[in-house]
Structures are given as structure tokens and as C-alpha cells.
Amino acid sequence: MKRLVILGGGESGVGTAILGKQKGYKIFVSDKGSVSKKYKEVLLNNEIDFEENQHTESKILNADVVMKSPGIPDKVELVKKLREKGIPVISEIEFAAQFTDAKIIGITGSNGKTTTTLLVHHILKKAGLNVGVAGNIGDSFAQQVAENQYKNYVLELSSFQLDGIENFNSHIAILTNITPDHLDRYEYDFNKYIASKFRITKNQTTSDYLIYDADDEAINNWLKVNKTRAKLVPFSLEKQLEYGAYIKDNNIIINITKDIIHMPISALSIKGKHNTKNAMAATMAAQLLKVRKQTIMESLEDFEGAEHRLENVAKIRDVEYINDSKATNVNATFYALECMDKPTVWIVGGVDKGNDYNDLLALVREKVKAIVCLGLDNDKIKNTFGNVVDIIVETAGAEEAVKVSHKLAERGDVVLLSPACASFDLFDNYEDRGRQFKEAVRNL
């Protein structure tokens, strides 16, 4: 009986434990922190051996295979010891993929992956396909492989999940964009992060597809130097393409099958240039899976978007409140500010992952009337924008940030939470930050 050790008792860890047990592995789950009540109940109900608040090396270093949760960096001593012993350390998606024959649509990128994942899933579901959605969102991929026999999966894949793959493959891979993010995990080397994202295509064959942003410099540079066996399917807002998706006269044109799609950008339910790109990528994935043009176009018109991503919360005294808590890097916040067409009170800050705020200067100068800081260390924000914005206020929580913004905003303004940072200094995660923001707005 093979011994599967799982590091991390969260969503991916517990899902892997359920699948591993079903497939006859001897399981041990180890979490350095505490395991939440919800997951503890699942482990106890399934009679799975686990420990919390420690890693007992003697119970870990005897594994045949180790599944490491994406939040644990490779440079941790325990992971190094496992690798020195030649024990494979893989991610949940690598472990689960070997137990399903489903078609996989894998989606990665620095920004836009959640929206694109939800949009592809929405279109395929509307088309009547038997489809699950997993990866970075929803129930873990492993648990779904154990409990449902979906014929297709749409997976949102982070670079950390891709770092732990060996044989995993997506029939259709989507690469939305690559901008500097998580550089703290890649020795502050952008090229290492780019290589990590491109692992999504490493096992693709000539019958697979790689859908990518042809306007993205990092992607184009990688493709010039490296080879993939997959068929390349580009999309662009800047140039007309003979094959792929592009814009002409404010229409999206998609030219990858005999059935050419023409759709006005104005018909899309999600707004902004970045969402036009997300819609192009999702549409091409659906077309490659033979979904009818009519179904695709209807889906693009009635899709509701992701929670915490440019989500309209409320309008109070003619001031709009928008929750973009999912913007955990500068590029995501760039998109958000680009979409603002009213004077903006911008709530920003949190744990900085090596951010360069200079890219935002022009947009902030043009659109932002006041900055409300929401983090423990705001020096970089104050230094970058101090000469551009007259009002910069520091706050210590969502409620205070919303009250201050409410005082600063006048009729016709917008209050935008788009932090450009991780949330771990004051919140559990970006969802917690977004929910606290929404609650504070509703309590005004």
C-alpha cells in the first residue's frame, strides 16, 4: 500500500486525502497551523490520519509521494529534505489528473483567470456539457474527481499549482497574461515566474491548443525562444489576426472555425478592455469544444462575473461603492482604475509582494481624488503618490476605510476598493477583505 503524505489541511489537502483514500493509498495529512473545523470534520468522518500545529518528520519522510498545498514555498526545509530523498513532491492537480479521463481546460495568468474560468464554465454549462469547475476556486479538483464523474473540467491554475506538475495536461490551455506577481516566491526573478506559467503547455501535444494574449510582451518573448507542440490560438486588441480573435469597428471577430463570430463589444455583460480579452479567450475555448455560436453569444450577454472583481456593492447618496478586493497585484488595479469614469476615492494597500506602483501614476493623476490606505505598512504608497494626490489617509481596517471614504466622497464620485496587494496583514484572504468591505458599506 503506497503512503501518500499531504502537507496542508485546507481545500486541496483534504480533497486529495479523500481521493487518495478512495484509490487505496495510506494517507497522512500534516498541517503546520491549525486545521479549520470544517476540514477537521471531513478528515474525522473519513477516518483519515492527520496532525495539526506541527510537522512530524518521521511520519513524513517515509512517504512514497507527497502532495504539497500551493501555499507552501519550495524553499521550506521539509520540502528540501523530501526532494533530497528523491520523494516526488507534487500538486493536487497532478495527483488528481491521473484518475480522470475528462477533457481539461486549464487557465492561468497573472490576472483574469478567475473571470475567464467562470466564463468558460458558464458557456459550457449553458451548452449542456457535463462540466465541473475547480482549481483555485470552488471545491477541490481532487474531491470532484473522487465524487463526480464529470466529462470536462475547467481549472483555474496558479503558478504554484503548475510548479508541482509532472504529467498533468490541459487539452485546451489559456494563458491570459503575464505581469510581475508573486516575485517573492521566485527569488524576485521575473523569468522564473514566466517559466512557471508556461508549464501549462509542457505536456501538450499536437492535438492540444494554447490560447494566449498576443499583445503580451512576456508571452511573445517566451514563444520566440521556446517551442510548444500545441496549436497556437492568439487573441489581440491591437492587431488583426488571420487566425484567432481580434477587434474591428468595436466588434469582436473570432476566426478559428468556418463559423466566424462577430459580436459587438457593447453586448458583453462584463466591461473593460481586460474583460474583452477574457471573453475572447473563453469564446475560443468554447468554439474548440464545438459549442454553437448562438449559445456562446447568449452566455457572454448574461454572465454575471466573479465576486470581489469590480463588483458593484451599492449606491449611497449618489456615490458608487465598488469591491475589487481580488486585485492583489498592480496590474489588476491598473485594469480597475482604467474602468473608472468618475472621480475616484481609491482604497489601496496590504501586504506588498514587491510592487512597483509607478505604472499607476498616470491613471491615478487622471482619476483619483483621494487615497485611503488599508494596510500596516503604507510608506511605499505614500512615497509614490504623495505628489500626485492631495489627500492620503491611513486606516486600520475595512470599517474605518469605508467610513473615511464616505466622508471624502461627494455626489457623483466612486469609492473603489482595489488594494493591489495581498490581504494577510489584516484579513484571512481577499474574500474576507471583500466581504468586510461590503458589510461596512451596507452599514453606512
UniProtKB/TrEMBL annotation:
Pfam families linked to this entry: Mur_ligase_C (PF02875), Mur_ligase_M (PF08245), MurD_N (PF21377)
Catalytic activity: UDP-N-acetyl-alpha-D-muramoyl-L-alanine + D-glutamate + ATP = UDP-N-acetyl-alpha-D-muramoyl-L-alanyl-D-glutamate + ADP + phosphate + H(+)
Domain Mur ligase C-terminal: 308-421
The protein's enzyme class: ligase
InterPro entries xref list: Mur-like_cat_sf, Mur_ligase_C, Mur_ligase_C_dom_sf, Mur_ligase_cen, MurD
HAMAP family hit by this protein: MurD (MF_00639)
Protein name (Swiss-Prot/TrEMBL): UDP-N-acetylmuramoylalanine--D-glutamate ligase
Keywords of this entry: ATP-binding, Cell cycle, Cell division, Cell shape, Cell wall biogenesis/degradation, Cytoplasm, Ligase, Nucleotide-binding, Peptidoglycan synthesis
Membership in a protein family: Belongs to the MurCDEF family.
Metabolic or biological pathway, per its Swiss-Prot or TrEMBL entry: Cell wall biogenesis; peptidoglycan biosynthesis
GO MF assignments: ATP binding; UDP-N-acetylmuramoylalanine-D-glutamate ligase activity
Function: Cell wall formation. Catalyzes the addition of glutamate to the nucleotide precursor UDP-N-acetylmuramoyl-L-alanine (UMA).
GO cellular component annotations of the record: cytoplasm
Domain Mur ligase central: 107-286
Organism: Polaribacter glomeratus
Lineage of the organism: Bacteria, Pseudomonadati, Bacteroidota, Flavobacteriia, Flavobacteriales
Entry EC number(s): 6.3.2.9
Subcellular location: Cytoplasm
Binding residues for ATP: G109, S110, N111, G112, K113, T114, T115
Stored PANTHER family: UDP-N-ACETYLMURAMOYLALANINE--D-GLUTAMATE LIGASE
UniProt-listed GO biological process terms: cell division; cell wall organization; peptidoglycan biosynthetic process; regulation of cell shape
